[in-house]
Specification:
The protein is of the alpha/beta class. It has helices at residues 26-40, 47-54, 66-80, 91-101, 115-120, 130-133, 192-205, 207-219, 228-236, 247-257, 293-302, 305-315, 349-358; strands at 57-62, 83-88, 109-112, 148-159, 185-187, 223-224, 242-246, 265-268, 278-285, 318-319. Strands 1, 2, 3, 4, 5, 6, 7, 8, 9 and 10 form a ten-stranded mixed β-sheet that branches. Residues 1-28, 40-45 and 50-55 have low confidence and may be disordered.
Length: 362
């Protein structure tokens, strides 16, 4: 296999199928997931996927953005000769779409930025072969092997050291409702990573404690942003003092502008705190493509050393296979002790979104 490299978007050779119109509220999508799953749970085949395989295309529904993984998909085509027809969109929206399509879905592979969205379509996924599951530690894949993590990402607090000394950075998200942080905390309530973190809090601390915490944030004038990157920018420019983000946003920006030019810094939270969640971007194969060698080859390729190294170099996410080192700036993955949950449990997203709506964050 050739070494994976950066490829300009102008060189992409695979076909792009547009997503259906983005729903006005992602919450509405996820709230439909249980009903759609019930309608689709009896489907053991995927006729749309079968038809697509006959055309020589591998149809991938990708919750990871075209800007990020489009060049990677093009490299897969170059390395294997297998064309990818990619449909890009929000992970939860694509999950709902697949559940609605059922056995008519053209999807063969689902590449999600979040374990919760993968869990929500568990009924549509086939068990992955041992050649795939043996590559990833059990804590980063489904218990029934219907999906596997590809890369890991940790939750951190971005902080402004000009206003918050390193030894005063909160070590728990529960400190963020303190009066001294009024108007100085930034979150992204519509972002899948934030929603998964809240789900983890519900699972470990209970609904009552979680809703009380969210209500406390609102009363403390929490600042809402659309994306993690915008939160980091706000901390970096001194607009807010603290922000909840995924770790790799800081490292990506530091690589772009130079660490010496970063005002914002990040802090990993205390072990077992809900804010220390380590989530994954992951992949699963639809039942109708279970025996499709192209689908299996694609998943194996995502977990190959070269591709894992690509993610380390380009996104600073954690690799999930042995033999590939994470970026040297990062603490070792096995030192990050997140809350004691199975990642598949993050599929309990609808109740989280209902709670976020109840407190006024959605």
């Amino acid at each position: 296999m050739s070494h994976i490299r950066r490829i300009s978007r102008s060189s992409l050779s695979f076909s792009l199928r547009p997503t259906r119109g983005k729903l006005g509220a992602i919450a509405a999508v996820a709230l439909l997931l249980p009903a759609l799953a019930a309608c689709s749970s009896d489907s053991n085949s995927n006729s749309g996927a079968t038809e697509s395989s006959e055309t020589g295309e591998l149809v991938v529904y990708s919750g990871r953005s075209e800007e990020l993984v489009g060049p990677l998909f093009a490299e897969f085509t170059e390395a294997t000769g297998i064309n990818i027809s990619a449909r890009f969109g929000d992970s939860a929206e694509l999950a709902a779409q697949m559940l609605e399509e059922g056995d008519r879905s053209p999807a063969q592979v689902y590449f999600s930025q979040d374990a919760g969205a993968l869990g929500s379509v568990n009924s549509l996924l086939s068990a992955l072969p041992e050649s795939v599951t043996s590559l990833v530690a059990p804590e980063y894949r489904a218990v029934d092997d219907t999906w596997t993590g590809v890369t890991g990402r940790a939750r951190v607090i971005a902080y402004d050291p000009e206003n918050v000394p390193a030894d005063q950075v909160p070590q728990s998200v529960f400190e963020l409702t303190d009066e001294k942080w009024r108007g100085q905390v930034a979150i992204a309530p519509t972002n899948a990573s934030f929603q998964s973190f809240v789900t983890a809090m519900r699972l470990t601390q209970g609904d009552e404690v979680t809703q009380e915490w969210l209500t406390g944030l609102v009363k403390n004038e929490v600042q809402s942003y659309e994306k993690n990157g915008l939160i980091l920018d706000a901390v970096d420019s001194g607009q807010v003092q603290l922000g909840l983000i995924n770790h790799y946003y800081w490292y990506e920006k530091a690589a772009e502008v130079g660490q010496e030019n970063m005002r914002a810094q990040i802090s990993f939270m205390a072990p077992q705190d809900p804010g220390s969640l380590v989530n994954v971007a992951g992949v699963g194969i639809l039942k109708g493509a279970a025996e499709n060698p192209a689908a299996i080859e694609f998943v194996q390729w995502l977990l190959s050393p070269n591709t894992q190294e690509w993610f380390v170099a380009n996104t600073f996410e954690y690799p999930l296979i042995t033999g590939v080192a994470s970026a040297p700036e990062l603490p070792a993955l096995d030192t990050l002790a997140g809350p004691d949950i199975e990642l598949a449990q993050l599929a309990d997203l609808p109740a989280t979104l209902a709670m976020l709506q109840d407190v006024g964050l959605l």
